Design the sequence.
């Protein structure tokens, strides 16, 4: 009778240490979110005075106060204003940046190289350097205190980063598809809309996600152009909330912050698969 030796795999402590390190990093990154959620349910006297993560009791009135809005403007109006600006910015960037990227990636015209290099150079230009000239232009056009200064530039392909992202993706598409469409009688615009644009969906969704998140969280530009409380977004309302009610409104302010965070989380979760696909494809195919 033969006995079979039972083999045990050695424990790879290096891999265990890596997993523990990743878990610790995850907890560190998630702590601010947990603190935000916990603080939104704290009583007013515990927001600043107490360092405990969990509140002594749940103060649900913070959310009811936040739902009332600020400056006699309901949170639904603030939410609709934010969605209008973010949605317009997404639509403008997707349309204009894809058109500009198609011209740089697929068409042949004079000075294409220098123009593309000039566009890439604008990525390094600080936003504050062009803010004053833009404000003067929109002020002379009578568009200050409207949503147009926040949406109209997006329809002019001013986001060079997204143009570059889509160009990298389009350069990896086979040209045989366009040549076949050209033989069938398709011009540049028809080839763009019927052949290239459907294949560029991952890059377009990546552009939409980043545009939505950046526009939704934008504070400085909206502060410059919007004056009336009826036109405020959730981002501006958070500042007004503190100014109107002083330190006693920290609980409702954090509750409104949680409400403002929900659309971003839902938007990201809905399209995260396309985000990873678009970023990976743009990097590999370039």
Sequence:
């Amino acid at each position: 009778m033969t006995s079979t030796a039972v083999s045990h795999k050695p424990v790879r402590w290096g891999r265990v240490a890596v997993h523990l390190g990743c878990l610790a990093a995850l907890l560190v990154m998630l702590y601010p979110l947990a603190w935000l959620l916990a603080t939104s349910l704290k009583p007013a006297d515990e927001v600043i005075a107490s360092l405990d993560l969990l509140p002594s009791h749940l103060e649900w009135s913070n959310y009811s106060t936040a739902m009332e809005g600020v400056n006699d403007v309901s949170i639904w109006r603030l939410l609709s204003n934010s969605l209008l600006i973010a949605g317009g910015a997404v639509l403008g960037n997707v349309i204009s940046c894809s058109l500009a990227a198609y011209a740089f990636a697929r068409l042949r015209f004079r000075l294409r190289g220098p123009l593309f290099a000039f566009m890439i150079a604008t990525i390094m230009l600080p936003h504050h350097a062009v803010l004053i000239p833009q404000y003067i232009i929109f002020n002379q056009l009578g568009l200050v205190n409207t949503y147009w200064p926040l949406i109209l530039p997006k329809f002019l392909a001013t986001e060079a980063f997204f143009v570059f992202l889509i160009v990298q993706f389009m350069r990896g598409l086979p040209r045989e598809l366009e040549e076949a469409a050209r033989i069938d009688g398709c011009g540049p615009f028809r080839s763009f809309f019927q052949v290239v644009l459907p294949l560029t969906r991952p890059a377009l969704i990546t552009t939409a996600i980043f545009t939505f998140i950046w526009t939704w969280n934008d504070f400085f530009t909206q502060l410059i152009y919007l004056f009336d409380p009826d036109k405020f977004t959730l981002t501006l309302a958070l500042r007004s909330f503190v100014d109107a009610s002083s330190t006693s409104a920290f609980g409702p302010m954090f509750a409104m912050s949680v409400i403002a965070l929900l659309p971003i989380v839902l938007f990201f979760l809905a399209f995260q698969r396309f985000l990873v696909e678009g970023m990976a494809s743009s990097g590999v195919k370039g």
